[in-house]
Amino acid sequence: MESPQANVAVDQLTFSLFQRPLHPELFQLYATRQLKTEKYEALIWVTGCTHVVSVFSGDVCLSEVVSTPGQLLPHRGLVERFQFRGPRTHKCTLSRGVSYMTDFQVEKMSPNLYRQSYADLERFARNRGVFVKFPELELDGLQPFCYVDFEARRSELHIHTFAAYPDQVTMIKTQSLFDFQ
């Protein structure tokens, strides 16, 4: 399996929201999860120190993507696209009672805080979510990783992601809410 791009500049990463599904062939998948409730189905892909979450309800699909520079993504169905340059909150309401909200922040850390965050999240992930680490890309004792935590409620999906970049001693944290009323 090909190594992820873990040494990309964080401010070059892109957050995109699509109103359509995306093909898995576009990404290198390191872990996947599938969820199903009576209101929706969701696919969660860890794509290196990035992720894709696609949520389907009836004929509606929303896909949240964090991607590296040069990642080929379609233009069709693109709702929003942002760079990770500081904190941001975004909300949108789509047709048929579907709403989406995301909030993200970029956190520069000390090496000790990075190590502690890694240990805490890895321990938490033993009971829930998806934790993917990349030990082959360790730098000065710090490993890149991606952790996707999720809470599937009847008509809502809560997603929390943590993507860590050791060369910048930085973590990107996102919180998203997919709501299908």
TrEMBL record:
It comes from the Bacteria. It holds the Pfam family DUF2617. InterPro entries: DUF2617 (IPR024486). This is DUF2617 family protein. It comes from Anaerobaca lacustris.
